[in-house]
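Feature request, filed as a ticket because there's no other form

It would be nice if the structure record came with a short human-readable summary line next to the tokens. Right now we just get the raw output. Example of a typical job, pasted below so the devs can see what we mean:
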Amino acid sequence: MTDSPGTVILDVDGTLVDTNYHHALAWYRAFRRYGVTVPVWHIHRHIGMGGDQLVGAVAGDDVESEHGDAIRAAWTEEADALLDEISALPGAHALLQAVRDAGYGLVMASSGKPHHVERYAELIEAGDLPEAWVSSGDVEQTKPAPDLLQVAMERVGAGAAVVVGDSVWDCRAAASLGLPSVAVRTGGFSNEELREAGAGSVYESVDELTADVASLKPQEPQA
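Raw output as currently delivered:
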């Protein structure tokens, strides 16, 4: 629509559902299956990065080469076992509603597995509020690569967009595409880290962002 103020590309994991520490534990257990011990704090610093990127980033290229696919499969099993413990973050559904009420387009973009994202959609009662969903199954590379964001914009024909996420990887993906980003601290990253990664604004909670949703300023990608 020509009168739309633009599209909000909204991350799911860690932004709308409280998953980041569950994911860190699932990765820790997956690595341990193959005799690799990575401190959980170090894994957490990479949550928000897709599994195609995370194994090598936290454990090195040799582990990726020898066990990468097997560790990712083990992570899926471990994460599946924790799904029933996942809950929506306070105000998640209200944020979706506020975005649409303000006239923005809305696309949900997650590096997560498609069946995990389906569960999260139920938890946040997304219904038909999003115009489209994009997950790791739709792209070759996940965050911090910009592929998810590119596909998200293509799905709805967006000319201008702003990315909302909880991790430095969301912000870096947006920056690499020349899109603005804002962040919430629900993923456990500091204000300083998020701003250094490119976030124009940082909010302490989903509710705080919802109250300020009219300040979101989608822009066209910058070359």
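Something like this underneath would help us a lot:
Residues 160 and 220 are 4 Å apart (CA to CA).
Residues 61-82 form the longest helix (22 residues).
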